[in-house]
Amino acid sequence: MPRPIDLVDVFFLRKEARIAREIQGRPSPVRSTGLSRRELLAGMGIAACGFASGCVGAQNVHVPSAADMTGGLQVAQALQLTNPATNHEIEGYASATSINRGESIKLYVNTSEPTYTIEALRLGWYGGVGSRSMMQPVLRTGEQQPPPNFYSGMGLIECDWQNPYVLTTGNSMNPADWPSGIYVAKLTAASGKQSYIPFVVRDDSRSSDILFQSSVNTFQAYNEWGGWSLYTDPRAQAVSFNRPYDAGYGTGDLLNWELHMLRFLESRGYDVTYTTNVDTHAQGELLTLHKAFLSVGHDEYWTWEMRDRVEEARNRGVNLGFFASNVSYWQIRFAPSPATGDKHRIIVCYKKESPDPASHSSNDKTRQRTTVRFRSHIVGRPEDMLIGQMWETWPVQGDMIVTDANGWVFDGAGVKKGDHLPGLLGYEVDRIWTHSPAGVYRIARSPYQYHGETRYSDMTVYHYARSAATVVATGTMQWNWGLSDVAIGGQPYTSEPAQRATKNILERFNALPNSPIAAVSR
After folding, report:
1. pLDDT band at residue 517 under the 50/70/90 scheme
2. 473 CB contacts (<8 Å, ≥6 apart)?
């Protein structure tokens, strides 16, 4: 029988060096049996407070399902997807969320089939194809991995799989040799079933115009592989990167929001490099190498250190683009893996003060790291102090409405005050609150119904005078759908005004299309 493990003890009283010695045993596998949050929303059209980001959502709203968001022709083309694994026929995870050019990453794969192939694809534009193969498929012997560890004290599911494929990236002077990007390892079992492992390749030595942050923390928070996430009932208080993603064919929420911005940037030749939440936390000083930092889609889970680093970047003149909503809503802490001891592999988020040992600390700095909302009294860092706005409602599905058609954001977009941007409002939305920086102003103000009352979502801009940085926030995730040619549930969301506005925003950030580096590296 496995020995019960108290992860409160592990995370707060044991040093990293002792973790591998203390963690022993392996319980029976845990399987996910419930519907995901997004599937519940799509089926019911209403929100339940137990699954919401913060409170009850709007009623009678049809939100596109996960299948809608990942089922387009362009997605299948980019992933070379023909026969997706739907019942764990093949699955895997990476040893890190990102690596620098020239580094290696371990890819762990589970399958009961005798053989499989593994191939690395870089997602991009590539003439509309959507990806480029970076290596020839490698044939591997299949291996059925052991069940995951389950730490009942915090509902933590973590795999400790063996015999990974070690992928080593290039770092030559050739810019096309493993350029920074969002990659997927394509797994194809002998039966033809396919799954994917996402990872980011960074370029820590290069000052690009744009640094695109992938919201891997939020991907993991919603990941229900093994039956537990920060949203299941009962809810986990910790989740691990050492497990496959149950959504997006193994890519998590990557395809839902980020793929659209990625295709926009790369199709137009912007000079962009890529990073993740974990890197912003661990080496956020590198943000200042770039002209602009982009948070894209659904970027809900941040650490205190992430917040510090992004604020510091703004204070030093880095422009911030929040093409997203619900950003930096929950505070988390990273912890090392109980199985391997590797740093930053566990996300801890209690979502309530009293169960979190940090809330009882006599040290003010420790107490401020309590894993509750950033706007809560004990943390005291409302999101709008940085972003200019913060989250209010989900689910929402509607149109954005332009209010400042004559300013620089919508210059040349062919819109006038009151014009609609169809379908770009949702599925979570923000608005201006009371802590926004001086001078914040609205670009769009979009009404929606909430339990019989009218609420508004805002798109905002402010200029940080001390460093001349510009901060833009769309207040909606679905802005990114307007940038892409990918249809959602068969419905096109492409918006020329949103594309022109995004071009104007990036130009204000001193990032221009048709970059020479992009032309030779992709």
Report:
1. confident
2. 322, 324, 327, 387, 388, 389, 430, 459, 460, 461
